[in-house]
Specification:
This protein has 98 residues and is of the alpha+beta class. The protein contains 2 helices and 4 strands. Strands 2-3-1-4 form a 4-stranded antiparallel β-sheet.
Length: 98
């Protein structure tokens, strides 16, 4: 599998976008649970989204993006194949003997 960094630009946030966000978040969470999305970030201004997708190739990654509920609102989409994508490993909480 390869990693692809996507950058999405959004128009100014409005009620139409706000109505799609819960459906979009549910879809993104599903892809996270499947290991298809490795990271997902939204700018404080709500004008940009960055997402790292795990896919066999760029075409498969783009097909995933096309299925995003917010896709029709993206004003620009760019894809950057990554050589690697490192993140901090998830840690388990310490065990309490109490």
């Amino acid at each position: 599998m390869a990693a692809f960094l996507f950058q999405f630009e959004l128009p100014p946030f409005n009620d139409e976008l706000a109505a799609v966000v819960p459906i979009h978040r549910e879809h993104i969470n599903k892809l996270f649970s499947e290991g298809r999305i490795l990271s997902y970030s939204v700018s404080a201004s709500r004008s940009m989204i960055w997402c790292v997708i795990n896919a066999e190739d760029e075409q498969e990654a783009m097909e995933m993006v096309l299925a995003f509920p917010l896709y029709q609102h993206f004003t620009e989409v760019s894809c950057h194949p990554l050589l690697f994508h490192n993140t901090l490993p998830a840690t388990l909480p310490g065990i309490s003997l109490n």
